[in-house]
Amino acid sequence: MYQYDQYDQAMVDARVEEFRGQVARRMAGEITEDQFKPLRLKNGLYLQLHAYMLRVAIPYGTLNGRQMRLLGDIADKYDRGYGHFTTRQNIQYNWIKLEDAPQILADLATVEMHAIQTSGNCIRNISSDHFAGAAADELVDPRPYAELLRQWSSFHPEFDYLPRKFKIAVIASDTDRAAMRLHDIGIQIVTNDAGEIGARFFVGGGMGRTPMIAPVIREFVPALQMVSYAEACLRVYNRYGRRDNKYKARIKILVHEIGADEYRRQVEEEFAHILTLGLEPPQAEFERIAAFFADPGLESGLADGYDRSDPDFAVWADQNTAPHKQAGYKAVVISLKPAGGIPGDATADQIRLMADLAEAYSLDELRVTHTQNIVLPHVKQSDLYALWQKLDEAGLATANLDLIGDIIACPGLDYCSLANARSIPLAQKISARFASPERQRTLGELKLKISGCINACGHHHAGHIGILGVDKKGTENYQLLLGGSEASDTSLGTITGPGFSEDGIVDAIETATEVYISQRAEGERFIDTYRRIGMAPFKEAIYG
Amino acid sequence: MKILTGNDLGSGDVVWWDGKGWSRDVNDAVDVGDHADAILAAEEAARRVNASYAIAATRTEAGVRPAHIKDRIRALGPTVRLDLSLRPGDPEAAKQVI
């Protein structure tokens, strides 16, 4: 894992003290809320429905046991005993007091964490593949590239006041586990015909009220020129992005309005100029960063295979583990989606337990997934059973990865001041309706995503089944979408028709699954059947 | 009736104008009539409240009921964590909010 050098630590420590002073001035009345609001947002502190909410950055979703344990301790000490893992691989605390916020940031700084650039119109936390460094199918570990981008984008003065917020994802395999093409910039690390490592740039994706899939803007940029190319992409956006209209200010609108070809032309022109300045990071600097992500201590010579005699364990192991690049290991996904639970929430005790388990079983590494689960990336197969037993004791062994119970849901109207409808109660009802593990496995891979408003923090556009909560004359109403995907086969869902009440949408989803079961061909997932037979059979069954 | 709400500057707690100060209980909210803007300006300036605004509400036998669901949830707390709400012992509280 990357470790701060003296510059990183000095910057974060200085920022904490700066914010401590800003909070003191606000509490003393020396600055107004209008003056203070942009300052607190720069430090990840929002004001939500019930209290202040603090969003803590987890760069590319990677953290160690010590960091995870502190996240649990913060939940106990400053919040109400739990945290909420988000679709941007971050964690949010919902009950923060303003006067505590500086000390929380000081505590975070002791473990090389912060909340900088988790809000505002700047480059946000760089996200990545949650199996990075472990995935059997990755070309290379994408995190050194993500870290390079993190260092470039942190406190970048030119991009501190963009037309709108800006999100970047980096992956390094053909399997997209980061919704890469639904980001402002999606980067896939690839090789060219000469076998050299570089970056493929997708620009102009996003969800929200105008969902778009990012087109390829450049097939290959040499690895060390990646930052300069990103700078060119941002510079064109910063120059021409729509600052006059918040709803048209994301880069996806610019790319769409002027067209990918014209956007590419301008970026290439800017890129050519930047290259003349010689600003690319030296190879030695990249190698310094990459060294932090070297082999964490994986043993060689281990055999694949483990005792599967406990049937409950075998079901969990089949569902919640992924192939590892090293023989004898698995990447383990800890589901934060128990039947009837709140997606992404974990208690302080659960967070600390996951920290302990990472240290004991996963070479001191954890990952937060954009699907609001936790990964232990490096678990010996011989340790899987012992790990499962400990997870099961803590209510963390739900075997539903990528099944209908593995729901993404935004905080919705229960917490969020932007929401129009509640998301979590729907997730609870749906996961309870489909609680039977056998039924979930019969349905197979089925990604269900719920947003409480058009901002789409719950990724509803990209769900095989998506739900969008709206306000219909003061009453919560839910639109149903089918056919979305945020994987390598990225697609956007289509609204089925008129919306539903809270109970009605659960029934409609059940009907959709019945159509799938009756129509599916051998080996088809829900999304495959939908793509083959289209909307009509689903619509007919749902609306009669 | 028109009532005033906001969040306490320091704690962030949801608060309601009770005629003299800010209460955590929506049932203490009073009708401010045409005085909303003046009260809010004075209270914001005095740093007793943050992000304050006026809303429509009705007074029923059960208490003060904000017109919009968002403010009814603010008055209660998250419907999915009643243990953290202002009515932790009332399992029907969420239904009454909706």
TrEMBL record, chain A:
The keyword DNA-binding does not apply. InterPro entries: NIR_SIR_4Fe-4S, NiRdtase/SiRdtase_haem-b_fer, Nit/Sulf_reduc_fer-like_dom_sf, NO2/SO3_Rdtase_4Fe4S_dom, NO2/SO3_Rdtase_4Fe4S_sf. Keywords: 4Fe-4S, Heme, Iron, Iron-sulfur, Metal-binding, Oxidoreductase. GO terms for molecular function: 4 iron, 4 sulfur cluster binding; heme binding; metal ion binding; oxidoreductase activity. Residues 119-273, 406-542 form the Nitrite/sulphite reductase 4Fe-4S domain. Residues 52-109, 342-394 form the Nitrite/Sulfite reductase ferredoxin-like domain. Coiled coil: none annotated. Gene3D superfamilies: Sulfite Reductase Hemoprotein, domain 1 (3.30.413.10), Sulfite Reductase Hemoprotein,Domain 2 (3.90.480.10). It comes from the Bacteria. PANTHER family: BLR3264 PROTEIN, FERREDOXIN--NITRITE REDUCTASE, CHLOROPLASTIC. This is Sulfite reductase. It comes from Novosphingobium sediminis.
UniProtKB/TrEMBL annotation, chain B:
InterPro entries: DUF2849 (IPR021270). It comes from the Bacteria. This is DUF2849 domain-containing protein.
